[in-house]
Amino acid sequence: MLGAPPNMFFKVCWWVISPLLVMIILISSIVQYSPARYGKTYTYPPWAEVLGWFFSLCSIIWIPLGAVHTLYYSEGTLLQVSDCVCRTLLNIEPDYITNQICANLNFPRIIIMV
C-alpha cells in the first residue's frame, strides 16, 4: 500500500500482540461471565444469551483454531514448530540449527502479501 513492507513493530503487533490480547479478552469474558441485563430489572432470556455468545465467537474463534491446526499438522515439538512459525511469519533469518529443524518439519510455508 505504501510501497514498502511494514516494519517489525507492526508485524509483531499483527502476529503476536493482537492474537494474545484477543485470547486474554475471550478467556476473561468467559471467566467473569454474568447474564446480560437491560436496566436493573430485565434479564435477557437464555436463548438470547446463547445467540449473543454464538455471534461473538464466530468472529474470534478462528484465531485459536488456526493456531491449533498449525501445531497439530506440523511435525516436531511445540517449541520447534512455534520457532519455525514465528521466524517464517516475521521473516527472520534462522540460524543453521533452526534452519535444519524447519527443513525437517512438515510446515506449510505461508506467503503473506502485506
Give a description of the structure.
The chain crosses the membrane at residues 12-31, 51-72. One of its GO terms (biological process) is amino acid import across plasma membrane. The N and C termini lie close together (8 Å). This protein has helices spanning 8-31, 46-60, 62-73, 78-89, 96-104; strands at residues 37-38, 42-43. A two-stranded antiparallel sheet has the order 1-2. With 114 residues, the chain is mostly helical. The model is unreliable at 110-114 (pLDDT under 50). The radius of gyration is 20 Å and the shape is elongated. It has 2 domains: 16-31 and 42-73, no CATH class; 75-114, no CATH class. A hairpin with a 3-residue loop joins strand 1 and strand 2. The chain has 5 helices and 2 strands.
List the helices and strands and how they pair.
Layout (H helix, E strand, L loop, with lengths): L7 H24 L5 E2 L3 E2 L2 H15 L1 H12 L4 H12 L6 H9 L10
Antiparallel strand pairs: 1-2
Quick structural summary:
This protein is 63% helix and 4% strand.
Largest sheet: 2 strands, antiparallel
- Calculate Rg over CA atoms: 20 Å
Strand tally is 2
Strand order of the largest sheet: 1-2
Name the descriptors.
114 residues, mainly alpha, two-stranded antiparallel ribbon, 63% helix, 4% strand, transport, transmembrane, amino acid:sodium symporter activity, membrane
